[in-house]
Amino acid sequence: xxxxxxxxxxxxxxxxxxxxxxxxxxxxxxxxxxxxxxxxxxxxxxxxxxxxxxxxxxxxxxxxxxxxxxxxxxxxxxxxxxxxxxxxxxxxxxxxxxxxxxxxxxxxxxxxxxxxxxxxxxxxxxxxxxxxxxxxxxxxxxxxxxxxxxxxxxxxxxxxxxxxxxxxxxxxxxxxxxxxxxxxxxxxxxxxxxxxxxxxxxxxxxxxxxxxxxxxxxxxxxxxxxxxxxxxxxxxxxxxxxxx
Length: 244
Known about the structure:
Blueprint: H1 5-8, H2 32-46, E1 62-71, E2 76-88, E3 94-101, E4 106-128, E5 131-159, E6 162-183, H3 191-203, H4 205-232, H5 237-240
Antiparallel strand pairs: 1-2, 2-4, 3-4, 4-5, 5-6
């Protein structure tokens, strides 16, 4: 997943350059963090529909091929397979903090997304508390006022006389204020059981999401890392964070 470099990076590449209409931030600017805090949401808005000439996909929605979620400890034991994922709402993300430690190749930031919808085809089987659950249909996981804590740890890579900032580790934490869950076609389409389970899931959404959150974080962070590196491995560091 993430083609979500967009969430944390200042921009995308035009060859080895950033688009002219993107906000530029300078490494030596004493207000670098403030500049980046404003630049990233600005870039997200400009990339809402993608930049076709640069092969940058739309981030509204952001398409993800597949993720698998496993949870086998505690009151929620579920195997979940998601395909054809769409993430809606990323273009409305703002940054509440940004700390760039470029000497040590590290970026730490907190973001706030007012409403993020995760919509996907799903296959699921397991149990929640003592209740069995299984189904195959369309899932909608909506997170309201979603705070995400991002921690990107990089390393320098020298190539062709240029230094690139390769991200070797990407950690995220999800802290939504409220989560709404809906799964179609639960229990082979039994509407009564499906409606009851969806009601139960939403009445216990904090418990359910907290039990699954670590699996979601691990799955998505590895996607974010891979996509971020598709840009950071391509654009020299001094053209993302200007030196003069």
